[in-house]
Amino acid sequence: MNCTKCKTKAVIGLPRHNAAFCKSCFNGFVHEQVSRAIASQRMFSRQDRLLVAVSGGKDSLALWNILLKLGYRADALYVDLGIPGYSEKSYERVQRFAETVGATHGAALRVHTVKEEEGAGIKELAQLVHRPTCSACGTIKRYQFNRAAVEHEYDVMATGHNLDDEAARLLGNVLHWQTDYLEKQSPTLPASVEGFAKKVKPLYRLSEREIAAYAVLNRIDYLVEECPMAKGSKMLLYKEVLNRLETASPGTKQSFYWGFLEQHAKERSPEGSMAEKDSATLHPCSTCGQPTTAEVCSYCKMMARAQASAQR
Amino acid sequence: MKVQLSHPAREVDVKGPKRVKELLRDLDLVQEAHLVIRGDDLMTEDEMLKDTDQVEIRPVISGGS
């Protein structure tokens, strides 16, 4: 198989683009897809200060790498979730990447430790509030990242969500007709109200396989091991189903998710409608001050329940 | 050839020569969810693997919320 662009030996075939690339042309392809995402979804400019949420996995480290290579001002935040035998390994990868790549671009790594702040790791917290670990983890990460971005005055918060993540989430939402969640599936979520950071997903045009290939080709030392808490999660099942469809019919994932984005854009201007809706329904949490639809936000409620449960 | 697999980590022996595409099919692994790596190189689906090769089939899917 030869590179579609330069005709030298290819290292990866991309059936959905009917193309194959050598290492150099593949890196060009990846950077181009991210640049297109940033421009077409009005994510940020070179003057903006970005905070990248990093976990030690391929997506977030590849994202941090790409943004720095493209010349953006991007620091990173690692949230230590306190997962025994896993968080240590993931932090090690993040720290090494920050020292070897981040530092050479003048980028800083910030670290938040859940156990230090809340007295317990994610698994115990989820058990205390009787919620699935992945769901409690999602609430905690979203809260921590938003708070860090707002407190340290970053213009934008970037996450490593890729095409597979978004297509799988869309499938889950559509299967259960959770139409309220569809509005939040845009790759750019504006800072709709005071206390909410602008959130972007610059990797939404790239599949997980493409990002893993980018990480391998560019010697990004990421944690291959799966989070032990994610075993048997619905997201994994949706991804598996979508990848079977993709292998049989290349381009299925992108036509599903990008098609949704096009339909959604036609229906309304997301920025206007979301800002209007959010300012009508959100107000500061009475405990921590972050935006919420309730009196007390879901993070503070969860921590209060965890505390009450621990004291029993 | 020796084939290293993950989730759970294990090694299996597969008779070569064999194309990457056939190796994945024989192990019932979906191409879109895996990378095949030999040494430091990524292997494309049409490449031939020798009986003496050592390869890693790396899953690329991560889950969670």
Write up this protein:
The complex is a heterodimer of chains A (312) and B (65). Chain A contains 13 helices and ten strands. Chain A has helices at residues 23-40, 58-69, 87-102, 114-118, 122-128, 133-151, 163-175, 179-182, 208-217, 234-248, 252-267, 270-281, 298-311, and strands at 12-14, 19-21, 49-54, 73-80, 109-113, 156-158, 188-189, 198-200, 283-284, 291-292. In chain A, strands 5-4-3-6-8-7 form a six-stranded mixed β-sheet, with helices on both faces. Chain A has a two-stranded antiparallel ribbon with strand order 1-2. Chain A has a two-stranded antiparallel ribbon with strand order 9-10. In chain A, 42% of the residues are buried. The model of chain A has no long low-confidence stretch (mean pLDDT 93). With 65 residues, chain B is mainly β. Chain B is built from one helix and seven strands; from the N terminus they run E-E-E-H-E-E-E-E. In chain B, the strands form two sheets. Chain B has a five-stranded mixed β-sheet with strand order 2-1-7-4-5, with no helix packed on it. In chain B, strand 4 (34-38) and strand 5 (41-42) form a beta hairpin. The model of chain B has no long low-confidence stretch (mean pLDDT 93). The chains are: A alpha/beta (312), B mainly beta (65). The interface between A and B is medium-sized, with 38 and 23 residues.
Low-confidence stretches of chain A: none
How far apart are the termini of chain A?
A: 64 Å
Give the strand line-up of the largest sheet of chain A.
5-4-3-6-8-7
Oligomer: heterodimer
Order of helices and strands of chain A: EEHEHEHEHHHEHHEEHHHHEEH
**Got a strand count of chain A?**
10
In the sheet with the most strands of chain B, the strands line up as 2-1-7-4-5
Poorly predicted tracts of residues of chain B: none
Rg calculated over all Cα atoms of chain A: 20 Å
Percent strand of chain B:
35-45%
Q: How helix-rich are the residues of chain A, as a percent range?
A: 40-55%
Radius of gyration based on Cα positions of chain B: 11 Å
What would you call the shape of chain B?
globular
Average of per-residue pLDDT values of chain B: 93
Largest sheet of chain B: 5 strands, mixed
Query: What percent of residues of chain B adopt helix (DSSP H or I)?
Result: 10-25%
